[in-house]
Every structure is written in C-alpha cells, then in structure tokens.
Amino acid sequence: MRHEEGTNEPDKRTWRRDLLTVRNGLTADDVRESEAALARQALGLPELAHARTVAAYVSVGSEPGTLALLDALRARGARVLLPALLPDNDLDWGAYEGEGSLARVRHGARTALLEPAGPRLGPDAVTEADVVLLPGLAVDAHGMRLGRGGGSYDRVLARLDRAGARPALVVLLYDAEVVARVPAEPHDRPVHAAVTPSGVRRFG
Fold first, then answer.
1. Own/partner pairs for 49-52, CB < 8 Å, 24+ apart?
2. 8-48, pLDDT tens digit by residue?
3. Helix, strand, or coil here: 176?
C-alpha cells in the first residue's frame, strides 16, 4: 500500500476503498493466523496487563481477528465491554461473557455485527475503560487512525474527552496498514499505539 505524501494525496474515501480491497483479498487462513499473532502481541502490552476494564469490539469479515484476544483478556480477569450500534451510529456497550454471549445483529443493508446479547450499560460505560481497543483501516507515523467513516468511534473519543477519561487508545491492524501518513481532519484524535501481528508501534 503506497500513498505518497503530496498535493494529490488521496482523500479518505479513496484510502478506505484501497485498504478494503487488500483486506478482502485475504483468505480465511490468513485471517485466522493473524488473529492468533495479534492476540499474542496485544497481550504483551503493559496497559492490557494491568487493565481492569477493556472496551473492545468483535471483528467481522476480513478485519484483524479479535475473539482470541477477547477470550484471553477475560481469562486474565479483565472486564471486557463490547459495542452495540445505535440507530444514530453512536455506541452503547455490554459485557462480553464468552462467544456464546454474542448475538448477530443486522443494521439495515450493512454487514451484520456481533454484539453483546446481555443488558445494555449505556454509551457512557466506555468512560470506565482503562484501555480502548479501536478498529481501523490504517494508522500513520503520528498515530492518526483512519476508520471506516461511520463516525461511531469519533463519538466515543469525544465522549472520553468530555468525561476527562484518559484510557490507552490502541488500534488493531494488519502489518501493511501502518503507513507514513493518512489524511486527517481537525477533529481526528491520535491513538497511543498500534498492534499488528508482527509487533507494537507506539506514538508520542
């Protein structure tokens, strides 16, 4: 994935299309192997080792797999919160109690999401997290994350700011999705680290 810095820098929509094209070319074996490696790398983070509450998400399709990591965090005794998409694209939260506690929910014509089937804890539950694991399509050398464009996690990050919460923000990606620069806007917030199957990249 090469997007050179310059006056013709592709906009976010072009970046998303190109990155998703690469992801959609991955085989089920590619995704499964990267899931195990991603979990190993993430579990080595000191922030996760000491976290009492982790806000995470369930990967879908060709996203870097998260279920192995979610189960390992639970086994460590961490409370794991998972999002449930609301009609306005904001996120509610529920506790992860194992793979059997997930329900497949379709939101309009979009991909069905795996969401917690138990009680909803409210959008502000994320402010209790010590670490927030974020989905994304890429991250750059400044820690700027490129998401899918729905705005759900922009709302989460704004909610954390309003509450004065300072969790560690960690994006989960494939190796090639750590790039020199992604297009960013004034409201975008940098993450503290990116975890890929081959390692961890920290940002200042």
1. 49/76, 50/130, 51/78, 51/129, 51/130, 51/131, 51/168, 52/78, 52/79, 52/130
2. 345 888 999 999 999 999 999 999 999 999 999 999 999 99
3. helix
Longest CA–CA separation in the chain, Å: 49
What tokens were used for 122? 């409210």
> Which residue in this structure is represented by tokens 């790398």?
41
At residue 113's C-alpha, the angle toward residues 107 and 117, to 5°, is 100
Whole-number Å distance between alpha carbons of 123 and 93: 6
Phi-psi region of 106 (alpha: psi -120 to 50; beta: other; left: phi over 0): beta
> Distance (Å, rounded) from C-alpha 47 to C-alpha 51?
6
> pTM (2 decimals)?
0.91
- Say if residue 61 is exposed, middle or buried (CB neighbours under 10 Å; 0-12, 13-18, 19+): exposed
Q: Which of 204, 124, 184 is nearest to 156 (CA)?
A: 124
How far is residue 190's CA from residue 169's CA, in Å, rounded to a whole number? 8
Contact (Cβ atoms closer than 8 angstroms) between residue 144 and residue 192: no
What residue type is 164 in one-letter code? G
Give the Cα separation of 81 and 165 in Å (integer): 16
Q: Distance between CA 59 and CA 119 in Å, rounded?
A: 21
